[in-house]
Amino acid sequence: MAAALHLQTHPCFHGTYQLSPPPRPSVSFPSSSRSFPSNRRSLSAHVKAAAASSSTTTLQEGIAEFYDESSGIWEDIWGDHMHHGYYDPGSDVSGSDHRAAQIRMIEESLRFAGISEDPANRPKRIVDVGCGIGGSSRYLARKYGAKCQGITLSPVQAGRANALANAQGLADQVCFEVADALNQPFPDEQFDLVWSMESGEHMPDKPKFVKELVRVAAPGGTIIVVTWCHRDLGPSEESLQPWEQKLLNRICDAYYLPEWCSTSDYVKLFQSLSLQDIKAGDWTENVAPFWPAVIRSALTWKGFTSLLRSGLKTIKGALVMPLMIEGFQKGVIKFAIIACRKPAE
Ligand code: SAH
């Protein structure tokens, strides 16, 4: 694919980007996806423990390879949004349109954060942190007529996201590259909307992650983080119960996740950076139908044969899907949204 190999200048980007999958980033991570120290109340204790624990590149490489391998099959069966759908609690979803529910997840997140629909105030520059194959970016770029830049660790995802943007006539509005959310390739204060849809759970250093989100937000800009958290700990609890931690560890191992934190840990981090209008929501009930639907799709002939062809990491991911359901049902896993605003200067 000669056309995919040359560098192009891109109007919405700082310099150039590659249509072909660029080389893997050389960044390193302070913790490993393979080590799971028990949860402590203090996030800094978490981070120290994580930093002390072993191999720095394992997690990043695992994430990149996992998404390199599994994004094609996901797109084939579910389309370009690699995140949960949003449903009315208790609704009958047997015949639900799950793709519509994924769009609703985006819309509800924008609504929760109070993003203006008014053309004068709506976001014009957006960053999609952990962009997958760019479903959110293209949707937001169209909705707001905004420019959107996405970053992912997966070269395959970045290449596919750019190809879809080109095919949909959005190449002058959106673009994607391989980069680390913990060291974003953007100057300070660039974006009116900082969007992280189900990528925070992959971040081994939550304080640094939040700091980077805040750094790239423009004054007055909004930050939206939709992410998997563990439940908040009770006042007398130092950590999750051993059985809870064991359940999360099995999920971490299959999905390349480091240690989890709670929704209130995120709130504290944003508070510590003096963010305003901090709001957190628990949407666990709203996403309940999602994993059963994914499991059903994996059990169709198309799903099953694609899965077998996709590779070991994807199969391993599929095998732990019931544990996500168990985690939600037992109250260990929370599907959280946290939104806030950077003070205007
Ligand atoms: N937000 C997308 C994709 C969610 S999947 C969507 O809703 O469709 C999680 C994404 O987070 C993947 O694209 C993965 O590459 C990305 N990710 C995980 N850790 C990352 C990191 N440190 N830096 C950048 N992207 C990361």
Keywords:
345 residues, alpha/beta, 7-stranded mixed sheet, two-stranded antiparallel ribbon, 42% helix, globular, disordered N terminus, binds S-adenosyl-L-homocysteine, Methyltransf_11, methyltransferase
Please tell me about this protein's structure.
The chain is α/β, with parallel strands linked by helices. Helices cover 42% and strands 17% of the residues. The protein has a 7-stranded mixed β-sheet, sandwiched between helices. A two-stranded antiparallel sheet has the order 1-2. Strand 6, helix 6 and strand 7 form a beta-alpha-beta unit. The N terminus is likely disordered. The structure holds S-adenosyl-L-homocysteine (SAH). The site of S-adenosyl-L-homocysteine has 23 residues, from helix 2, helix 4 and strand 4.
